[in-house]
Amino acid sequence: MSSQERIQFRREVQPIFQDPFAAFNPFYQVDHVLTTPLARFGLAASAKDATHRIHEALELVGLRPAETLGRFPHQLSGGQRQRIMVARALLCKPKLIIADEPVSMVAASLRATILAGLQTLNRTLGISILYITHDLTTAYQVCDNMMVMYAGSVVEVGSADKIIRNPQHPYTQLLISSIPDVDRSHRWENEPVGELRHAGRQVTGCKFAPRCRWAEESCWQAMPPLYQPEPDRAVACVLHRQSGVLEQQDMARVL
Fold it and tell me: Fewer CB atoms inside 10 A, N or C side of the chain?
């Protein structure tokens, strides 16, 4: 990319980091993270315009400018800080927000508020959200489509609703079964956790093979391709080899 293209990329692709406590420089008031992108990317015509844009962004994420601006990070809660980071991303007029575990360190009472705010950005402003998480319950609520990964490899791709309700890859099935049930008579700690069956054997194929009860010899030798048992789902597992293979260039049809 050219210098101008890099600047454009940095404006259009904005991150929201996991830790709202480490994302701020404690030396500065929180205003600093809001005024800096406007100045860096030349997004405000004047100081008055910058103030208006900042107030608008804060109100969009449910914060009152008068109660937020002029404070230092330690004077705000984790939920307030995380919403400021969402507002900061909004100021850049992004096309894509990469949200890396954005609510894992936020009080449970505020998680729904922040996630609902991200959904609003997606639906009303057309901003794409890449939501990275270990929490399948929030992923199910937030995402239209899902990509499940194990040890850096994609094992299942498709509609979030189908993957959660009817997982097809053994690892995805294990993930779903590990979610605690609200029924206290169901002792979830006794559920299988994917026992390591062949700890000493070298794996050059599917990384889940040492924990998979259905692993075949071919699984150890080569990573299965993404088979497509349904139009909106693909699974990297030999259990679905009767289906056609999803080519990389066709991934967008599933996602």
Answer: N
Helical packing angle, 31-41 and 3-12, nearest 10°? 140
Res 177: pLDDT? 83
Q: Is the four-CA dihedral 243, 248, 250, 255 of positive or negative sign?
A: positive
Residue 246 · residue 254 · CB < 8 Å: yes
111's enclosing H/E stretch is helix 108-125
Residue 80 to residue 87: CA distance in whole angstroms: 10
> 26 CB contacts (<8 Å, ≥6 apart)?
72, 73, 74
Helical (H) or strand (E) element with 137 = helix 136-142
Mean pLDDT by 10-residue block, N- to C-terminus, for the chain (255 residues)?
93 92 92 94 93 94 93 93 92 94 84 85 90 90 92 93 93 86 63 59 86 89 92 92 82 71
Residue type, 134: H
User: Strands 244-245 and 233-235, how do they pair?
Assistant: unpaired
At 132 the three-state DSSP class reads strand
Residue 230 has phi, psi (to 5 degrees) of: -140, 160
pTM of the model: 0.84
